[in-house]
Amino acid sequence: MYLEYYAKTANGYCKPLKNLRENPTQPTINIRTWKKEMSTEFVSNYIHSRGLNYSLGFVLFDTNGRPRTLFALDKTKDANFTDTELMTLSLVVPQLNNLHKNFFCQQTRQQAVNQLFWETTDLTARELEIVNLLCQGISPAVISQSLYISQSTTNKHIAHIYKKMHVSNIQELLVRMLAKD
């Protein structure tokens, strides 16, 4: 609501800073005492009309360290935020920020994995051969013998396959390979 109102004010002095960057050692938490603010259209028409005395804002950042989400906690009581509330927020905000980053990171990673087809993973001819054998239930040891390659070479091929297919074990590989057919 703040940002929508800010955008309509003439001076817009309360806009979030575009150049604000994440400080990993200290969360970005800011308290505004509205009684001490100079009277502007925003303060008189928005803040005072709602009876707000204090606002505490904190920012959550994306994986690139840029501000992504802004929270504002408002108080109508004539008592500023307590030391306990500030200490709690200083402990909670970094945790929220990590969850926030993981949300965007997992969302991006999951979209990429969902769009992954085995035909487009650039598996080499040898890797396709090994995947075919793995899907038939043949063990890596037997694959090594049948292809006349060492067990460590087979394991390296399997590791490359897992990486390209974004899986971490044979079961996930099988599900991905069989689901796309």
From TrEMBL:
Domain of life according to the entry: Bacteria
Keyword Disulfide bond on entry: no
Keyword Transcription attached: yes
HTH luxR-type domain boundaries: 116-181
Gene3D superfamilies recorded: Winged helix-like DNA-binding domain superfamily/Winged helix DNA-binding domain (1.10.10.10)
Keywords recorded for this protein, A-Z: DNA-binding, Transcription, Transcription regulation
PANTHER family: DNA-BINDING TRANSCRIPTIONAL ACTIVATOR DEVR_DOSR
Protein name: HTH luxR-type domain-containing protein
Source organism of the structure: Acetobacterium fimetarium
